[in-house]
Amino acid sequence: VQPKIAPSMLSSDFANLANEADRMLRCGADWLHMDIMDGHFVPNLTIGAPVIESLRKHTDAYLDCHLMVTNPLDYVEPLAKAGASGFTFHVEAAKADKWEELVRSIKSRGMKAGVSLKPGTPVEEVYPLLEGGGDNAVDLVLVMTVEPGFGGQKFMPQMMDKVRALRKKHPYLDIEVDGGLGPRSIEEAASAGANCIVAGSSIFGADDPSLVISLLRDKV
Length: 220
What we know:
- The chain has 220 residues and is an alpha/beta fold.
- 32% of the residues lie in helices and 20% in strands.
- The protein has an eight-stranded parallel sheet with strand order 1-8-7-6-5-4-3-2.
- It is globular and about 45 Å long.
- The chain starts with a strand and ends with a helix.
- InterPro entries: Aldolase_TIM (IPR013785), Ribul_P_3_epim (IPR026019), Ribul_P_3_epim-like (IPR000056), RibuloseP-bd_barrel (IPR011060).
- A divalent metal cation binds at residues 33, 35, 66, 178.
């Protein structure tokens, strides 16, 4: 399991997205975290496949797409064509009888499959998506450490119990955390077992983003 630091592009200057992406990569980012919100599953509305397609023309980076949408299956084909690298959907939006179809659809189009859960969702909800391996299992679990939909919220330390439970059951799983992560909260997230760190305000608001990225990686 390798540390992966993924600046949240939600905190970037959207008018200069390609330049911001390049800046983050030069500062040492491993992934670029792209928050896709539909204004329905969460109140906010952000970007979609056209923006991913435009950004892909300017970078070879791993585009870690987090889908905060009501109907994730509808986004698989457009995002695959746009050049998304990872497709993480919410367990709350994927009905039990559609999970395997959704995961297989994501993987068959060359993307990594991930599942995310809100703070109020028990971690046990994602366990079925980690069983069996192969095309029926997700590659990543994203534990939200704030309520999804907006940047700049405070880290919820109690969510680390979910991370610890996942790491104990799945030693080699990519476990991602998103929300309020920065120099003050990374120790708790890393010690719980998170290896993929999404950080927005703490990186983009820093005088030296490369220093923050380096610190996060070193802690993991």
